[in-house]
Structure to design on (355 residues):
């Protein structure tokens, strides 16, 4: 018993030959039990992060940005071009990687997270994936993401050009994702993240960010419906690069999202989530677990998922047509499967919430 605790403590359980049985223990100051002693530090970091970055555990802009950052760190990986994946390089080498235009507005969350990532004896790569999982857990309807720790704190800057941009066409985006090991279906599942997303105002950063759907604080399937509505409203600041007309004034549609929603390579998976929040969450959770270890030696990591809070759920499985729109506004794009009949919220068009 004692020897397995010691081995777990040193992260040597796997070197001991047989896989050590999980040792439930109660030595962390902030909780009653933890599988690995190394997970204790994450309970400390959790409280700090929730209190000081996520404004008491809310699904606020910083929580969204933390999720985005997990992708921008991890996708910096190519078997041929280099990059260490989910290695913390976006924070360790921010002065290099943030020059990539696709990393626009990541600086804000780097500034918020870096002091905490330095304060605790953890690697930047671990801290980024941790913050994304915790931030996501603050959003109602989200899955509880896996969190593995133990990444090295050493990294090199990822080469520029590995991060998909909103003005890229579908062929370019799918090729980039395939190069990093992700299928078109996995990309669609990853884009459930855009259900809790907004874009910072380009012309006037003091203005609120503009959401990608009508419910930016809920991890729901509204994003997958609203990206399929006929686009009529020009982006509020005119023709911003990488945006296309959205269905509702004040809502942002990334050009890439509008194209992926309609492309035969991705549209059926896209549509499938509209009435199946459970599948959306299960697939998102699975692909996030894969994203979080891109470029990493999984065998050397250990599971601290127990530290990630349990998100609040909601009853509804199905998305809805936003108020002021009808089923006729849907540009159904999955050949062979008609778009499902959705309930329509009553009343006139509602103002888009700001983030
Ligand atoms: C085709 C791939 C993708 C493209 C082109 C893309 C592009 C963008 C852009 C342009 C923004 C706005 C950022 C800003 O200026 O404030 C954004 C926001 C966001 N993205 Fe993506 N993204 C992609 C995939 C992903 C993936 C895979 C994830 C996570 C797993 C993700 C998570 C987010 C989140 C959470 C936000 C909201 C950030 C905030 O509200 O501040 N994105 N994305
Ligand atoms: C990880 O590396 C960064 C520099 O990239 C450093 O500031 C930080 O203190 C390191 N953390 C640990 C635990 O060594
Ligand atoms: C997609 O974009 C790439 C790079 O800009 C370009 O070479 C290619 O022709 C485009 N493909 C399509 C189908 O538009």
């Amino acid at each position: 018993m004692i020897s397995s605790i010691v081995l777990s403590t040193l992260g040597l359980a796997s070197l001991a030959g047989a896989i050590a049985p999980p040792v439930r223990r109660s030595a962390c100051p902030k909780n009653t039990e933890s599988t690995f002693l190394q997970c204790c530090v994450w309970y400390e970091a959790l409280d700090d992060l929730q209190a000081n970055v996520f404004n008491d555990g809310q699904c606020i802009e910083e929580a969204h940005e933390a999720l985005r950052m997990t992708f921008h760190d991890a996708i910096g990986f190519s078997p041929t071009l280099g990059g260490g994946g989910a290695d913390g390089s976006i924070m360790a080498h921010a002065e290099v990687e943030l020059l990539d235009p696709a990393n626009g507005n990541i600086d804000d969350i780097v500034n918020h997270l870096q002091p905490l990532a330095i304060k605790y004896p953890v690697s930047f790569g671990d801290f980024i994936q941790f913050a994304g999982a915790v931030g996501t857990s603050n959003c109602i309807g989200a899955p509880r993401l896996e969190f593995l720790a133990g990444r090295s704190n050493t990294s090199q800057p990822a080469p520029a050009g590995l991060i998909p941009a909103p003005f890229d066409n579908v062929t370019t985006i799918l090729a980039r994702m395939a190069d990093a090991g992700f299928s078109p279906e996995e990309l669609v599942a990853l884009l459930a993240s855009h259900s809790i997303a907004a874009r910072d105002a380009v012309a006037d950063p003091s203005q609120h960010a503009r959401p990608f759907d009508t419910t930016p604080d809920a991890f729901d399937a509204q994003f997958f419906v609203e990206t399929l509505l006929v686009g009529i409203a020009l982006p509020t600041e005119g023709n911003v690069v990488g945006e296309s007309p959205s269905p509702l004034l004040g809502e942002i549609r990334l050009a890439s999202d509008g194209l992926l929603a309609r492309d035969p390579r991705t549209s059926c998976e896209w549509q499938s989530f509209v009435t199946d929040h459970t599948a959306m969450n299960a697939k998102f959770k699975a692909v996030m677990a894969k994203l979080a270890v891109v470029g990493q030696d999984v065998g050397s990591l250990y599971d601290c998922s127990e530290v990630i809070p349990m998100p609040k759920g909601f009853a509804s499985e199905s998305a809805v047509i936003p108020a002021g729109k009808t089923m006729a506004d849907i540009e159904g794009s999955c050949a062979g499967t008609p778009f499902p009949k959705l309930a329509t919220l009553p009343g006139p068009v509602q103002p888009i919430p700001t983030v």
User: Anything to note?
Assistant: The chain has 13 helices and six strands. The mean pLDDT is 90.
